[in-house]
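TL;DR need structure tokens for one chain.
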Amino acid sequence: MSKEKRNRVFGLVSVIAKNSNWNADFNHSPKKYEDTFYASDRALKFAVRNLMEQMGKKVLIKKWIDGIKDGKNVSEFDVMTSKRLKEYLKEKYGREFKEMFWDFEDVRQFGMVYDGLGIHGPAQITHGIDMFKKGFTYDDELTGRMVFESKSDNTKETRGMASRQLLTEGHFIYDFSVNPKNVHYLQNIEGYEGCRYTEDDFDVLLEGLRYGPANVKSTQKLNCFTGLILYVELVDNDKTLLANLQEKLELNGEKVNNRVKYDISELISYLESKQKRAGQEIYKKIKIMYEEFEIDLKGLDLLNNSSFANIVEVEPI
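>> reply
TL;DR here they are.
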């Protein structure tokens, strides 16, 4: 059995979108507030869940298909209702949902609100903010090729004309955190003593963040991928709060050798000040993974000369 995780983690994830639409609004355009593009936490969670399922993990939050049902004109997939899903899970696994929800990897990560249960998951993700700020949207017009014949006058017409918007380039920066103690209270309830967030669970989360965005192969997300993961693991049971790391990363929209400059200098200074204030070593591990062909990472010299340089790992994605 994997070891229970006992330390908190704070980090950043960058999802790069090129000529694509990482997270659309109801008008099929990249989400935007005033002059800033942004993406929901659910867009990243969807990518992580999708990869988890392909890895053979049980995933709860998805469309559960009961089979094919006959419509008046076509056959369509029959999506399970909440009531039918609970019946199906009991038929398949022989247990009530409340007895098995911890079996689902996405519940162990992100929690859930389902069937009268509310679980605040260990892994939390913010909205992603486009800090590149140089991208712009353009229309991609779609021409339909399906020809339909009118029964009334025997005329024919081509249908399916549509338009969608894509973003030339965006770098969506997410904060994320992991706090295993979010679910410790479950262990005090009879029958739920095994509800523990483990080191293996954390490894699955990292793999999902690293490969999930590039694995969602819809047409609009074909050129979306993870550009950077930076995370800081605290020592076991330390209560230090590392807040709003997103704003401590600086992006320069001017490219050099077709790479965008990510400057982590302010973030390193922030980590140094936190440790100095604590008066002791509070970091267990600091790891950076980034796409070298897309990102020019600045501040590594400051990191290598920091008081925690001996626990730093840097590798390409």
